[in-house]
Amino acid sequence: MRFFVLGDLSVELLLIDAIMKPKVTSDEGCYNSHPTSKLRYPAVLSIAGSDSSGGAGIQADLKTFSALGVYGATAITAITAQNTQGVYAVETLSSSIVREQIVAVMEDISPLVVKIGMLANADVANAVADALSHYQIPIILDPVMVSSSGHRLLSVEAEEVVKQRLLPMSQLVTPNIPEMIALTNMPLSTFDERLLAADYLLGFGVQAVLLKGGHEEGDTKRDILYRPTSSGVTTSLFTSETITTKNIHGTGCTLSSAIAAYVARGCELEEAVGRAKGYVSEAIKSGAGISIGGGFGPVNHLFNPQKMSVYEER
């Protein structure tokens, strides 16, 4: 354990190697059993866009939920025409149908966690915030802004809705480095600068920030989890080896969905992040040498699918 002090921010840095996390087996979970008369599947609601190529968005979320043994429900925000080489068209759904999808799932399926991905515009972002404001539920917010091919997926106006309305509702936000810069308008070249940027986002009320380091060069990727404490900001560092492959389409969607799945299975946030990092790394490795399409291919979500989890409802 190492401690740092930056200005008025005291930082506790915990080093965690995601690759060393134990693999989840079909019988492994984070549940505490309670006597009851009803058995349920742990469910997660994904609010995101559709990827016609199947590698990212809603499709990646559902594959991830299935692979990790949780039940997936969806509220689709936009339809994209895309493949492994790029995004060619986007049609955003009406805010009213987005809201109705969310309410329909929340009132019947009763998900344990919500994952938010592509929101497209401010109307949809506000509709999502309005709908979720009626429920007390952990939210994992993946601020999808630009596709891996460079196509913008979130309007500038919607960015303010994300910061002002959705961040305060969320347990975790998972920006990559370009998204973090867009949300904070702050440099991220050094550890100290990233800490200040994370503290800025924490100021909006989000409970934790996971800054993803997938855009970094080098043999190791570093994701940093920032959480406020009474004495400052606690920082946990998750490391994983860099895997040489172009099959990385949808890795951000997959990571946030995996975190949501592990939270739904009863894991504390730090453990959920560590397990999700391990899952994504293995999914990339398993699909690294497999070709589908002519561009950036998907990861292998189903390299080791788990049985559907069941828990006892109190």
Topology overview:
Layout: E1 2-6, E2 9-17, E3 38-40, E4 43-51, H1 57-67, E5 71-83, E6 86-92, H2 95-108, E7 113-116, H3 122-132, E8 139-141, H4 156-166, E9 172-173, H5 177-184, H6 191-202, E10 209-211, E11 220-229, E12 232-241, H7 251-264, H8 269-287, E13 311-313
Parallel strand pairs: 2-12, 4-5, 4-7, 7-8, 8-9
Antiparallel strand pairs: 1-2, 3-13, 5-6, 10-11, 11-12
Helix pairs in contact: 1-7, 2-3, 3-4, 5-6, 7-8
List keywords for this structure.
314 residues, alpha/beta, UDP-N-acetylmuramoyl-L-alanine:D-glutamate ligase, 8 helices, 32% helix
CATH topology of the domain at 41-212 and 247-272: UDP-N-acetylmuramoyl-L-alanine:D-glutamate ligase
**Strand residues, percent:** 25-35%
Number of strands: 13
- Taken in chain order, the helices and strands follow as EEEEHEEHEHEHEHHEEEHHE
Describe this structure in words.
This protein has 314 residues and is α/β, with parallel strands linked by helices. The protein has a domain at 41-212 and 247-272: Ribokinase (UDP-N-acetylmuramoyl-L-alanine:D-glutamate ligase, 3-Layer(aba) Sandwich), CATH 3.40.1190.20. Helix content is 32%, strand content 26%. The protein has eight helices and 13 strands. The strands form three sheets. The protein has a six-stranded mixed beta sheet with strand order 6-5-4-7-8-9. It has a five-stranded mixed beta sheet with strand order 1-2-12-11-10, with helices on both faces. The longest helix has 19 residues, at 269-287. It is globular, with a radius of gyration of 18 Å.
